[in-house]
Amino acid sequence: MSKNSNPLSLDYLFGSRVRVKVLKFLFRNYPVNFGAKDLADRVSEPREAIRKEIKNLQKIGLVKKI
Q1: What angle is formed at CA 26 by the lines to CA 37 and CA 61, rounded to 5 degrees?
Q2: Are the C-beta atoms of residues 26 and 63 closer than 8 Å to each other?
Q3: What domains can you pick out in the chain, each with its CATH number?
Q4: For the whole model, what pTM was predicted?
Q5: pLDDT, mean over the chain
Q6: Which of 9, 26, 34, 53 meets the CB 3.0–4.6 Å disulfide criterion with 39?
Q7: Using N-to-C axis directions, what is the helix angle for 36-43 and 17-28, rounded to 10°?
Q8: Which InterPro entries did the record assign (predicted)?
Q9: Residue 20 and residue 56: Cα distance in Å, rounded?
Q10: What percent of the chain has pLDDT over 90?
């Protein structure tokens, strides 16, 4: 999160710009399933960042591995 984050922005609320991009993409494309590589390509973020966010979202039960 950047120092200039607006306290009302989704990045600030969710703690990560990548997490916001992943969530937006998944909610807009529900119920289609995506792998980390495909998701990284679609949201234009590094695959490792996507994997990290997927892992975090799995921990809280928001996404699941199939």
Answers
A1: 95
A2: yes
A3: 10-59 (1.10.10.10)
A4: 0.77
A5: 86
A6: 34
A7: 100
A8: WH_DNA-bd_sf (IPR036390)
A9: 12
A10: 52
Chain centroid to Cα 20, Å, comes to 5
| Per-residue tokens: 22 | 């992943």
CB 42 within 8 A of CB 24: no
pLDDT 10s digits, 12-34: 777 889 999 999 999 999 898 99
Amino acid at 34: F
CA distance 56 to 15: 12
Strand, helix or coil for residue 17: helix
Candidates 32, 52, 30, 31; CA nearest to 40 is: 52
Residue type, 16: S
**Joined tokens for residue 18:** 């990548």
* Gap between the terminal Cα atoms of the chain: 30
Task: Name the token pair of 47.
Answer: 């695959």
